[in-house]
């Protein structure tokens, strides 16, 4: 029998490690399809009173609307839609093209 100098433990480690590395990197480079994500739940952002000033969180989660405007997050999009009419519709999460 020919000895290669590699123990079965080394071979198992290499196989398991390469499988884990492949799984981790395939998740990072997988293209995301944001079109299947649900639309923003705008009703939770609408002010109770029309004279009440909206208070959106300072979180950046970009939203693109049908008017071609990119909003900082879904709250800003929903308030804009509430103030200026429902002709502004949700297009996608992410920057407008």
UniProtKB/TrEMBL annotation:
The chain crosses the membrane at residues 12-29. Keywords: Membrane, Transmembrane, Transmembrane helix. Residues 36-97 form the Kazal-like domain. The keyword Nucleotide-binding does not apply. The keyword Cytoplasm does not apply. Pfam families: Kazal_1. Gene3D superfamilies: 3.30.60.30. PANTHER family: SERINE PROTEASE INHIBITOR, SERINE PROTEASE INHIBITOR KAZAL-TYPE 13. This is Serine peptidase inhibitor, Kazal type 13. It comes from Jaculus jaculus.
